[in-house]
Amino acid sequence: MTKKIMYFQAAALVSSAVFSLLSVSVSFDISLFAVFISLSFTAFLFNIGFRKFLRVNDAAMLPLVRKLYEYLPFVHLIAFVIRRAGAYGTPYILDVVSVIFWVIITVCANVLLYLLAEKRVYKNNPDLELSRAELPPKKKHPVKKAVLEAFSWIDAFIQAALIVLLVNIFIFQLYEIPSESMVPEFLIKDRVVVFKTPSGPKFPLSDVGLPSIRSYKRGDIVVFRNPHYETTRKSEVKNFISQIVFMLTFTKVNLNVDEYGEMKADPLVKRVCGEGGEQLVMLDGTLFARTRENKEFTPVADDNLWAEWNVDGLSSNLKSKINRVPISQSVYSTLLSVEKERKLLTLDDAKREAQELVLAFSKAKRIFLPKEVNDEGINVSSFLSEQELNEYYLFSQNVTLTRKLLSSDAGVKWFNEFMTSWSSTIPENLDMYEQAMYKLNIMSKLVFGRLIVRNTELILLGGTVQSLSKDERINELLNQAEDLHTYIVLNDSRNMPVFPKNTASGDPQYISRDSYFLMGDNRFNSLDMRHSYDTFYIPLTSYDAYSVRYYSNIEQREVSSARILGTTVFRFWPVSRIGVPGLTAEKSR
User: Fold this and answer.
1) pLDDT attached to residue 584
2) Using CA atoms, how far apart are residues 201 and 562, in angstroms rounded to an integer?
3) Are 399 and 468 in contact (CB under 8 A)?
4) Ramachandran category for residue 315: left, alpha or beta (phi over 0 → left; psi -120 to 50 → alpha)
5) N or C end of the chain: which has fewer CB within 10 A?
6) pTM for the structure as a whole
7) 267: part of which helix (H) or strand (E)?
8) How far is residue 72's CA from residue 197's CA, in Å, rounded to a whole number?
9) Is-contact 308 184, C-beta < 8 A?
């Protein structure tokens, strides 16, 4: 046997033995099986490859030896994963050393497969050629032949799956788009190629892998691990197993579910909209950014190239392929109308109207309940509960609240506090988002106040609930309330507070180095890094003790480059949409 084969086989066996020792675990869990798998395979390979093949030049062993070396790297990779699948992790240095030996094993195995190929192994090893000549002719029984054929197919499938697994981990992976958060760039069931090598892929369940050799810029579409889910050893094991099952079942079985059995949105496909060193804010659908060098917020012009706010305005051809249009053209027009009204609102005019509404209600209340009321000692902070300050409740229950205000001794005082307390100390130096929410709160209050005053006027005239609902002015105000409700419901998709938040002293903070802010293109249909998966009951503005409340899911977060798996480089399905993402998006109206 040639010295090359002897040297590489010795190196492979020694490296495998060392790797097996590195797989030893003292935990009584699944990690115990790692050393058993690794060491058993190594011992079997030593017996077949060295004792029976290398020492005696037994040509009959050649096919089995080749097959063992084909599987050698994969067996040790499986042992690597199992060792790290237990309750306790492994030190980083142990992972590094294990990976080094795995690489040596893989190199040696592939060199040996090259050297042991039939077209060269017999030519370079005369003794092995003589052994082959002495082998008896093969006569296979039909049943045995069928069994061997079946095993060859199973072997081919397993090897292909394992090779694809390695390719998926370190080179590229195919993804099927699961949602419409990236419309119009991606549609549901679009299939894309994600290039992973430059992003520094890691060995499963470890932090060891290829170095990251690229950064990302605004506009890049990336696939990344969803930071909304807790990353634990157990979840990572489950994720790795689900990838294997997903691949072996030709994408038919996905085990990547949460504790409730719901499919996890992990990984995600989103676009880089903010880079390290930037502070962001979004108002009326326009993204603004600033840096330490440029202190003023300026619009991010490129964001308009991919942000889609009005899916209903896309071409009919593209809309026919979209399952859900998040808002209609009329709703989008309503949003623009509310934003226009908010921009035109002046605080002086709003203060004047609020005072007039309080005066009108006070006069009407004295007519409705003509008795002297000393409300100086009345505490009105609990007149309405937190839940009753919800914008929808205020608008929808305006008649009930009118009667409550008219019949309560605290009615006038509470109405005065609610309508005008914000104007006693108007805050200064609000950022653009805070100022917009401050005005939106006032707009909501003014519409509510108008409803209360108009209801009171009609009640004094003997109006009933039915007659109130037929009043032209009431219906006009209810339409205004509906517009505001629509805007507030969509507020957290249309607008975004400053991120990262300023410090308590007002100093700007910026996205961390090597981190990014990611959003979906379909802004009204994307749960992305703007949002939490939970909702919070919060005031529209923190600068008004009687602020209108709403349900929000704003909870921004940045994504470290370590969580990014790769970038989308090509869409290969459907055929009609083949192309490079970013160059082929259809946005024609």
Assistant:
1) 47
2) 9
3) yes
4) beta
5) C
6) 0.87
7) none
8) 23
9) yes
For 550-588, what is each residue's pLDDT tens digit?
Answer: 999 999 999 999 999 999 999 998 998 999 987 644 444
Residue 494 CA, distance from chain mean position: 18
* Cα dist from 75 to 42, 263, 519, whole Å: 10, 30, 40
Model pLDDT for residues 524-541, shown as the tens digit of each residue: 999 999 999 999 999 999
For tokens 């520094």, name the residue: 200
Is residue 222 within 8 Å of residue 566, measured between CB atoms?
yes
Strands 531-539 and 549-554, by their bridges, are antiparallel
Look at phi and psi of residue 137 and say left if phi exceeds 0, alpha if psi is from -120 to 50, else beta. Answer: beta
Residue type (1 letter), 382: S
Please list, residue by residue across 215-237, b when 16 or more beta carbons sit within 10 angstroms of its beta carbon and e when fewer do.
bbebebbbbbbbbbeeeeeeebb
Q: What is the phi/psi pair of residue 380, to 5°? A: -105, 5
Written as six digits, the tokens of 158 are 């397993």
Grouping H, G, I as helix, E, B as strand and the rest as coil, residue 282 is strand
Length of the chain: 589
Helix/strand/coil for 380: coil
Q: Where are the alpha helices (DSSP H) in 84-175?
A: 92-115, 118-124, 126-133, 142-170
Q: How far apart are CA 369 and CA 294, in angstroms?
A: 60
- The token pair at 516 is 């990014």
- Per-residue tokens: 336: 């623009």
Cβ-in-10-Å burial (0-12, 13-18, 19+) of 442 comes to buried
List all residues 6 or more positions away from 269 whose beta carbon is below 8 Å from its beta carbon: 175, 177, 181, 182, 186, 192, 221, 222, 223, 568
Closest CA to 518 of 552, 553, 490, 559: 559
SS3 content of the chain, % helix, strand, coil (to 5): 50, 15, 35
